[in-house]
From TrEMBL, chains A, B:
PANTHER family recorded: ALDOSE SUGAR DEHYDROGENASE YLII (PTHR19328:SF75), HEDGEHOG-INTERACTING PROTEIN (PTHR19328)
Keyword Nucleus carried by entry: no
Pfam families referenced in this protein's UniProt entry, alphabetically: GSDH
Origin superkingdom: Bacteria
Keyword Signal part of the UniProt annotation: yes
Key words, A-Z: Oxidoreductase, Signal
Signal peptide: 1-19
The name this protein goes by in its record: PQQ-dependent sugar dehydrogenase
SUPFAM superfamilies reported in the protein's UniProt record: Soluble quinoprotein glucose dehydrogenase
Length: 363, 363
């Protein structure tokens, strides 16, 4: 298997070993798979954007019939079923969370639902949250989730593409992160609660389209990546109540080449930890904690769509000091990257005939 | 004498009495007078923008010869000698502060100087601060000063007109307020000191052209007014370290009519207490504490250039609840408004043949 070691502008880390790996296809024939979750029994759940939840059994077999009981989703362009995430007490409760687009082309937005999974289907589904207002079009939904150690969850939301100025308006949910209790209520320490004009669910604002999120428990840091326009993809460290500046600050320009703002950074806004200009189109994100690849310990992995790669981010005291481009040999848009309980990386390729791929040590 | 009572959109305060007043010309033949200070002996110092400091004796006579020892100023268009302010210990020390433009048309900015006044001339002049960087052109200097109760002073600075984006850059002084000790040093509790990239003198940023400032000791509030572009003049309450949003937020548009920003307010920026749209072009500002006009107790008075008036702002718990247009009968651009130790208002008209006018009760 070809080993990639395309090193970017940052200086090489002296003595850094390059891990040898092998790519294994676990499942094929997934239609635009978007996210996956690891079940306690060794199986996996995989979402497909058109609105199906698929089960991969512990033996690696993809069940043909999708899991029943998934909420009705609005599936078009970027819209559809997004993330599946197990509740912290899933082993007992069977509860899982799904994020998805709901509505129609004239009025839709990102919603969050919860249901009970019995190994076959979903039951007891309830809608916990829908981003407001509903908006026109089928782009920029966010839709990723992370659990925080205080038993709250953070859901990422997009700016709806045609509504970018609304990312600066705390009176709606466009272009933000929201934080909810596990049963969908507003935690009483949410950062915008003191502002009568702000939505109480908000956790941070000024985002464009956040499609990767990771909570680093060792550093107690919530990290997200977000799509910039043309250039200006960002990795951000989330501070509750902070404003990340879109569309008033960006390292990118409009798809037309037009300047969106004269500002790359401003004192009022939290700057990114790093930006990718030109864009890689970051999608999922994972933090490596595992035994299979000792050299990757503590590194971030960011999957990329247009970039057709996974970007490994090597950190030192939280600062990204080096980057490595991985898995370009797949020649695929990569929608998600996860670390399994086995310490292997799992990738989802974003294609009509998409695949679930496992990265294992070469030897 | 004509009594004006042009009430604006805000509801009338029930039972509010309209003060009867008389306008008296104290001195004429002042060339674009900009500010005045009341001397302990009953006299006054008046700056003229071309660079002269004039003395009005206690008997009201304007001395023909200007006060000697004024610093060299760059005088052109809006540039020149701005404010004169006495030190808190002036009666003992004779120290006074002058703000002024320094440089030439290609490179100039607002400076602050201090000198000793002996009743005739200035001596021991020293330059305490010059805004950086020097910029081209002759517009938007700020130049007003206020004393704070902790023996620091705040100096207002403009965005230099052609440099409006720099009002968002804490790495320079354009479009900001700065706070200095009375001998020109940086107070060790200035709000931007923790930011290595920021200028240590900064007190607030995101201003366009602040030409009125008042410290309200009863409410412990620092208030400023600033020129908007076309529309969007503002009254702001200053919080140390805050960003007032120019040019990312404004209720005005460009002089051409072009939109500067889609945002009137944003969560990241401190909104104005009120805005004047269309513009009145606010200049000086005073807080009325005196016995001559009991009805005006605690009101703010804002002089206006294009508006050719003084705007009286009636407050309730710090909120402006009503406004009254005064002194339009002068038909003059008014550069400054002050409250004398006698409780009378003093106005300076902004003309080549400008006047110092005193407002006294009609009866």
């Amino acid at each position: 298997m070809k080993r990639l070691s395309i090193w970017l502008a940052a200086p090489l880390l002296a003595g850094l070993a390059h891990a040898d790996y092998r790519l294994e296809t676990v499942a094929e024939g997934l239609e635009h798979p978007w996210s996956l979750a690891f079940l306690p029994d060794g199986g996996m759940l995989v979402t497909e954007r058109p609105g199906r939840l698929r089960l991969v059994d512990a033996d690696g077999a993809l069940r043909e019939a999708p899991v029943a009981g998934v909420p009705e989703v609005f599936a078009e362009a970027q819209a559809g079923l997004f993330e599946v995430m197990l509740a912290p007490d899933f082993a007992d409760s069977g509860l899982l969370y799904l994020s998805y687009a709901y509505g129609d082309i004239t009025a839709n937005n990102t919603c969050l639902g919860r249901a009970r999974f019995n190994g076959e289907g979903l039951s007891g589904g309830e809608v916990l949250f829908c981003a407001s207002p509903a908006k026109r079009g089928a782009a920029h939904y966010g839709g990723r989730m992370a659990l925080l150690p205080d038993d709250t969850l953070v859901l990422t939301l997009g700016d709806g593409f045609d509504y970018r100025e609304q990312a600066q308006n705390a009176g709606n949910h466009l272009g933000s992160l929201v934080r909810l209790s596990l049963d969908g209520r507003v935690p009483d320490d949410n950062p915008f609660l003191g502002d009568d004009r702000a939505r109480p669910e908000l956790y941070s604002i000024g985002h464009r389209n956040v499609q990767g999120i990771v909570y680093d428990d060792q550093r107690d840091e919530l990290l997200i990546n977000e799509h910039g326009p043309r250039g200006g993809d960002e990795l951000n460290r989330i501070q509750p109540g902070a404003n990340y500046g879109w569309p008033l600050t960006t390292h990118g320009v409009d798809y037309t080449g037009a300047r969106i703002t004269p500002f790359r950074e401003l004192p009022a806004f939290t700057p990114p930890l790093l930006h990718w200009t030109p864009s890689i189109a970051p999608s999922g994100m994972a933090l490596y904690r595992g035994d299979a690849f000792p050299d990757w310990q503590g590194d971030l992995f960011v999957s990329a769509l247009a970039g057709q790669q996974v970007r490994r981010l090597i950190r030192d005291e939280g600062r990204v000091v080096d980057q490595q481009v991985l898995f370009e040999e797949l020649g695929a848009r990569i929608r998600d990257v996860r670390v399994g309980p086995d310490g292997y990386l799992y990738l989802l390729t974003d294609h009509a005939d998409g695949a679930l791929i496992r990265v294992v040590p070469a030897s």
